Amino acid sequence: MVPTKIKLLFALHILLCASVTRALSVNTLSANQTIKHGDTIVSPKETFELGFFSTRNSTNYYVGIWYKKISNRTKTVVWVANRNTPLTNNFSKLTLTIHGVLVIRDGMNDKQVWSSSNSSTRSVRNPLGQLLDTGNFIICEEADAKQENPIWQSFDYMTDTLLPGMKHGWNLVTGFQSHFTSWKSSDDPAAGEFSCWLDKKGFPQTIVTNGEELVTFRAGPWNGLRFSGIQVMKLPNRLIRYDFVLNKKEIYYQYNLISDSVYTRVVLQPSGILERLLWIDSTQEWDIYIQLEKDHCDHYNVCGPFASCDINNIPVCDCLKGFEPTSPEQWRVDDWSQGCRLTTPLNCGPKEGFKKYSNLKLPDTQWSWYNHSMTTKECERMCKSNCSCTAYTNSNISGTESGCLLWFGDLIDIRKFDENGDSLFIRLPPSELESSSAGRRVRVIVPIASVALVLLVTLYLLYRSKRNKQKQEGTDGNKSGNDREYDKGDKDLELPLFGLPTLIKATNNFSITNKLGEGGFGPVYKGVLEDGQEIAVKRLAKTSNQGLPEFKNEVMLISKLQHRNLVKLLGCCIKGSEKMLMYEYMPNKGLDTFIFDQTRSKLLDWSARYRIINGIARGLLYLHQDSRLRIIHRDLKVSNILLDSDMNPKISDFGMARSFGGNQIEENTTRVVGTYGYMSPEYALKGIFSIKSDVYSFGVLMLELVCGEKNRGFVHKEHSNSLIGHAWVLHKEGRSHELVAKCLSESINASQVLRSIHVGLLCVQCRPEDRPAMTSVILMLGSENPLPSPQKPGFFIEIVTGDTSHSSSSYGNSSNNELSITVLNGR
Ligand SMILES: *[C@@H]1O[C@H](CO)[C@@H](O)[C@H](O)[C@H]1NC(C)=O
Ligand SMILES: *[C@@H]1O[C@H](CO)[C@@H](O)[C@H](O)[C@H]1NC(C)=O
Question: Span 479-584: which CATH code?
Answer without folding.
Answer: 3.30.200.20
